[in-house]
Write a structure and sequence with these properties.
This protein is α/β, with parallel strands linked by helices. The protein is about 30% helix and about 25% strand. The strands form two sheets. A nine-stranded mixed sheet has the order 5-4-1-8-9-10-11-12-13, sandwiched between helices. Strand 6 and strand 7 form a beta hairpin. It is globular. The mean pLDDT is about 90.
Length: about 300
C-alpha cells in the first residue's frame, strides 16, 4: 500500500452543481451464463467495468468507460448495451488485434458461481490510446477502478499510469477489489490511504496481509490499517465499514431469495460511490448500496 501517499478525500459535488462526471475502468467482457448442470444458457455483457459504469449512470452520474473491446459481435453487443444505459463510450476503443473476452460462468443452485475463461489468452482491457494526456481528464471529478486486480494482471503499466494521471489532476479515487490473482505489491502501490476501497473479506485479507476468521478479527485488522475508507462486503451478513478512519459496526443486508450473485459486489460499490458523489451521507449510501445488491442477486443477471 502507498501508506505514505494521501489521495483526495471523496466528498462529492457541491449542492447545485452539475451531475458529477466519473471515469470508470475495469474488465470488459461477455459472460456466457449457464444455470445448473445442463441448464439454460444465456449471454450477458459483463465484467467489473461494464457493470459499474452502467450502475453509475443509472444513479445519475455522467459515467465514461475507458477500455477496449474486440471488433466482433460481442464487442458490438457490449457497446450497444452501454449506449442504451447512457454510458459514454467515446473512450471505449475497438481493436481488431484481439477478440472480446468471453467467460464461461456456471451458476450454482445457491446462487454462487464458478468462472473459467473461455479464452486462454489474456485480453488487454486497457491500451495506451484510452488516455493520451492529462487534458482528457478535464471536467471529471472521480475515477472508479472496478476490478483492480483484473486490470493489473493484464495491463499493469497502463493501469498504474491512468491512476497516477487522475490522481495528479486532483480526481478522487475509489477501488473495487476482485479475486483475480496478481502481484499484491502493485495493488498496494495503486491505492492511497484516503481512497475508498471496497471488496470481500478474502480480498481485504490479501491486501492487508492478514488472515481474519471472524468479524471481530476483521474489525481489528481494519482499525490497525492505514486505509481510511473501506467497505468489506460480507454477503448475507451485510457490510463492515471503516469511514474517515473510524470502524463502524456491521451494516445489515436485506434478506432475499438468491438467484445469482454474479456482479452484486460491483452493483453495491457503484451505488455507494454514486450516492457519495451526490453528497449523500455514508449511511444512506450504504443503505442504498446494500438494497441494490440485494435486488441484483434476486434476478437471473445484473442487467435485468
Amino acid at each position: 500500500m502507498a501508506a505514505a501517499m494521501k489521495g483526495r478525500m471523496l466528498t462529492g459535488r457541491r449542492d447545485g452543481a452539475a451531475r458529477p462526471r466519473c471515469l470508470c475502468v475495469g474488465p470488459i467482457l461477455m459472460d456466457r451464463l449457464r444455470f445448473g448442470t445442463g441448464g439454460e444458457e444465456t449471454l450477458c455483457p459483463g465484467g467489473n467495468g461494464v457493470i459499474s459504469s452502467v450502475v453509475l449512470a443509472q444513479r445519475g452520474i455522467r459515467a465514461t468507460l475507458l477500455g477496449q473491446v474486440g471488433k466482433d459481435t460481442y464487442g458490438d453487443s457490449i457497446r450497444r448495451l452501454l449506449r442504451s444505459r447512457d454510458v459514454d463510450v467515446s473512450r471505449l476503443l475497438v481493436t481488431s488485434s484481439a477478440r472480446t473476452k468471453v467467460a464461461e460462468i456456471r451458476i450454482l443452485k445457491d446462487g454462487t458461481w464458478l468462472r473459467r475463461s473461455a479464452e486462454p489468452k489474456l485480453f488487454p482491457y486497457l491500451c495506451e490510446g484510452n488516455l493520451k494526456d492529462e487534458s482528457e481528464i478535464r471536467g471529471f471529478c472521480h475515477l472508479h477502478v472496478a476490478g483492480l486486480q483484473g486490470l493489473l494482471r493484464v495491463a499493469p503499466d497502463i493501469t498504474l499510469q491512468i491512476i497516477q494521471m487522475c490522481r495528479d489532476r486532483g480526481l478522487t479515487l475509489s477501488f473495487g477489489l476482485t479475486g483475480s490473482r496478481c502481484d499484491q505489491r502493485l495493488v498496494r502501490r495503486a491505492i492511497a490511504i484516503d481512497d475508498v476501497v471496497i471488496g470481500t473479506v478474502l480480498e481485504f485479507d490479501r491486501l492487508l496481509e492478514r488472515r481474519t476468521n471472524t468479524h471481530e478479527e476483521l474489525h481489528g485488522a481494519l482499525r490497525l490499517s492505514s486505509l481510511q475508507n473501506c467497505a468489506v462486503t460480507l454477503g448475507r451478513s451485510g457490510v463492515l465499514v471503516k469511514w474517515r478512519g473510524t470502524v463502524w459496526g456491521r451494516f445489515p443486508a436485506k434478506s432475499v431469495v438468491v438467484r445469482n450473485t454474479l456482479g452484486a459486489g460491483d452493483v453495491f460499490a457503484a451505488v455507494m460511490i454514486a450516492e457519495i458523489l451526490k453528497r449523500r451521507s455514508i449511511s444512506t449510501a450504504l443503505r442504498l448500496g446494500t438494497s441494490a445488491a440485494g435486488g441484483s442477486v434476486a434476478r437471473n443477471s445484473w442487467v435485468e
